[in-house]
Amino acid sequence: MDNKKNIIVGTAGHIDHGKTTLIRALTGRNTDRLKEEQNRGISIELGFTHFDLNDELRVGIIDVPGHEKFIKNMLSGVCGMDMIILVVAADEGIMAQTKEHLDILNLIGIKNGIIALTKCDLVDKDWIELVKLDIADEVSGTFLEDAKIVEISSTEKTGIEQLKNEIIRIVNTLPEKDLNSNPRLYVDRSFSITGFGTVVTGTLISGTLNLDDEILIYPANKLTKIRNLQVHDNNVDTAYSGQRVAVNLANLKKEDVPKGSVLIPNNTFTESNIIDVKLKTVNLPFEITNRTRFHLYLGSGEVLCRAILLENEELESNKEYIVQLRLEEPIISKRNDRFILRLFSPLYTIGGGYVIDSNATKKKRFNNFDIEEIKNLDNCSFKEYIYSYVDRFSDRFYLEKNYYNFLSDSSKNISKLIDELIEENRVVSFGNNSDRLILSDRF
After folding, report:
1. For the chain, which terminal residue's Cβ has fewer other Cβ atoms within 10 angstroms, N or C?
2. Residues 148, 204 within the same domain
3. What does UniProt give as GO cellular component (predicted)?
4. Among 169, 148, 205, residue whose Cα is nearest residue 8
């Protein structure tokens, strides 16, 4: 059994600033995988590779596209990253896509990163110092504010060891992976292999997947079994949260599992057309008013929605808001899932944030009671969050197992907290185990 610790590192930055070249210097591999990419010299799709940093640490690399046209592909890659390397070319400095990538990474909740100043062999020291000052100004107030800037020449391989050492330093500060929640894998590639069938890849963002597990493909709602599992080209019996995983699925066509699909155990999530969210805006060159239409990016998926501004007539730059998103197609999501919003047209990132209530009901604008209820959900413990759901749905006479779907957490954890609520006389139950009827004390 391979006991190496696995982490996922992403590279981001403007087109032609040397992301793919840097990865080749780090790993000895080229992540560009399409003939079109090789011919054009740019990354269009996500690129993937890995390398062993030392005897204990295996690093999976995701190279996200830097061109503005391919920002959608970039968004599908940031889910599940442990850290980011923001690549800035010393001869050009901060550019448009550097800024948009930085905004997206900040909004999506990335906490750790390094700044790689590439192509340092092309400019003199004085210029490098000026570019560093510009970078420091741009990342001020973001998760990269205190990040180390590593000077690199990928062609001469200077700075590569310093970059590796900084990755190791950050890894030692990372929290343990979430292995106890329900497994969830967002598909970022789907293809067929002759003799094997359909294979999908993605980052397992929680839980574990096992050989022969029965899983649900959403939104196709097809049940299948895991025929084979690979992590970094090696066959495994179990894949763990935080790993890049390839999953061979039984009796499915690749069209059944397109990019943006989700692999989950059956009966562990509930789909919804309405979610309440905390939205943080970036610099807005346009007026954003109630019911503006957006592209919502969550995981590797994309869906159109309209934003209901519950507290305001319009959105202003660099502020936080409680917003209800009404989706044109249902999705599955979970409390604290991160998302990005881009205008329907023109395509422009206006902000992002996290889910507060993944199974929300329609709210009226400027209703103080509704707004306060959402804010309470945002700030409460998971036990109080469970109680709010039981209180809301008691008139529907749901069983405990129904709340496993609504709350999308492990049945063991939810059951334990429901027991605590029963002991506190805030919840009453009838029956046993997951089939017991759960009602609020106010019902």
Report:
1. N
2. no
3. cytoplasm
4. 205
